[in-house]
Amino acid sequence: MLIKRPKGWELPERAATPEAIYHGRRTFLAGLPAMLLATQLPGIARAADADPSAALYPVKPNPKYGLDRPITPEKLATTYNNFYEFGSHKEIWREAQDRLKLRPWTVKLDGMVEKPIEIGFDDLLKQMPLEERLYRHRCVEAWSMAVPWSGFPLAALVAFAKPLGGAKYVEMKTFMDVKMAPAQRQSWYPWPYTEGLTIEEATNELAFIATGLYGKPIPAQSGAPLRLAVPWKYGFKSVKSIVSFSFTDKRPKTFWEEIQGREYGFWANVNPEVPHPRWSQATERVLGAMERVPTQIYNGYGEYVAGLYADKKGEKLFM
Ligand code: MTE
Predict the structure, then answer these.
(1) What secondary structure letter does DSSP report for 161?
(2) Three-class SS of residue 192?
(3) For residue 148, what are the contacts with CB-CB under 8 A and spacing of at least 6?
(4) Domain span at residue 288?
(5) What's the CATH number where 236 sits?
(6) Which atom of ligand 1 is found nearest the CA of 140?
(7) Is 192 in the pocket of ligand 1 (CB under 6 A)?
(8) Does 318 fall in a domain?
(9) How remote is the CA of residue 38 from the centroid of ligand 1, in Å?
(10) Is the C-beta atom of 81 inside 6 A of ligand 1?
(11) Which of 25, 85, 182, 268 is deepest in the core (most CB within 10 A)?
């Protein structure tokens, strides 16, 4: 029997942004504070409305992390998503909001640590230094956005976990629950979604755990209640809805690497000069904008991260 398997990684570049979104949104909301954007869009954040962490937001902006471009309108950033647990198309936002159960949410910190920890998400949040940062986000499919994340540096979580000296990597996993996310029944994907960073990357000042977006708790479709944001890497590294951080001395095998390692490697740093095997990475389509813009090496964050790779010359750093 012929089984037709949807191969998400075979998405052609032209399919990355639907024409309706690309042509229909001419106005930028440049410079508008996140709060103002948030109040204009009551329908988008249904899951956020009932969120017990809502009173913590908005958090103080950290002016160090600014943008060279307008903030993407909230409606675009939260209705055009990749979250394969809820489908391999871009319009999963309603499905994710309806199905993703956000509480109770327990986070595990284990592996090579002084003592394994299991902690409720809201208790964890109380112990972390919250701030807002404006980051660019570049998907490997050659679209991009620029958003105000709220959350805390991943370095703060690493310090909280107290890894042992021999730990070299941190492996992060999304929940596994086929009732909540029926797409996890698709056995050709290596669920749960898994990602990894070196300890040096995880403790770099840019590595961020996002718990909020546009001055409110992060909505389900964007990776609630906590997701990674590593803006110098392609978006698939930024794992959503994390339940565990495991410290290890072995390089984790990541979700996309396992599916198609030739196209999606462990490092996945943004580089306009290294094309994806099936499309160019030289430019990107900014959600809501009319023109494509040139992509920058390390997505423009080289001053923070280029030094991390100085001793890794033999590695495929950009795939
Ligand atoms: N995390 C999980 N658990 N599942 C996913 O399908 N998709 C990744 C990443 N994190 C994904 C994920 C990809 S390919 C991208 S580009 C970003 O999430 C998209 O984030 P956004 O929807 O907030 O733009």
Answers:
(1) H
(2) coil
(3) 34, 61, 71, 132, 133, 134, 213, 214, 215
(4) 18-305
(5) 3.90.420.10
(6) 16
(7) no
(8) no
(9) 22
(10) yes
(11) 85
In a domain, 29, yes or no: yes
DSSP state of 209: E
Q: What is the pLDDT along the chain (319 residues), one digit of tens a residue?
A: 233 344 444 443 334 433 333 333 333 334 344 444 444 443 444 544 578 999 999 999 999 999 999 999 999 999 999 999 999 999 999 999 999 999 999 999 999 999 999 999 999 999 999 999 999 999 999 999 999 999 999 999 999 999 999 999 999 999 999 999 999 999 999 999 999 999 999 999 999 999 999 999 999 999 999 999 999 999 999 999 999 999 999 999 999 999 999 999 999 999 999 999 999 999 999 999 999 999 999 999 999 999 999 999 999 999 8
Q: Which atom of ligand 1 is nearest to the CA of 145?
A: 24
Does 111 reside within a domain?
A: yes
Give the closest residue (by CA) to ligand 1 atom 9: 236
CA-CA distances (angstroms) from residue 229 to 14, 56, 91, 208, 237?
A: 25, 20, 21, 5, 8
Atom of ligand 1 nearest to the CA of 193: 3
* 51 domain-assigned: yes
